[in-house]
Design goal:
By secondary structure, the chain is mainly beta. The protein has one helix and eight strands, in the order αββββββββ. It has one domain. It has an eight-stranded antiparallel β-barrel with strand order 1-2-3-4-5-6-7-8. It is globular. Keywords: Signal.
Length: about 120
Amino acid sequence: MKPVALPFALALCAATAQAEPWDCELTVSCGIGAACEATALRLALLPADHAGDLFVTGLGADIPVARLSAGPSAPRHYAGHGGEIALLLTIEADTRTRLTLHGGDERGAATSYFGTCEELT
């Protein structure tokens, strides 16, 4: 590859791999063994430092997450944990979103939230 083409190729790869940040609004929550109900949970998925690390904000603390899905196409899957919370976040191509929070207590109770995420530019 010519020296001039290499910087262009690297820039193109970085641009297509970037799929964050996201602003999410979750409007339904469903606990295990409980009826689903309306909720108002807002969170963001942000690259919060120069190393490219990702964080979910809006759950009381910034939670580091890792992107599980390869490539920039949807669905996008993220997993993380912080403090007493573990999470799995899925964002579909049509922006439908599912967030499952798992508690760190002895019951390990899980609650799923449903809504949408908007990609911020």
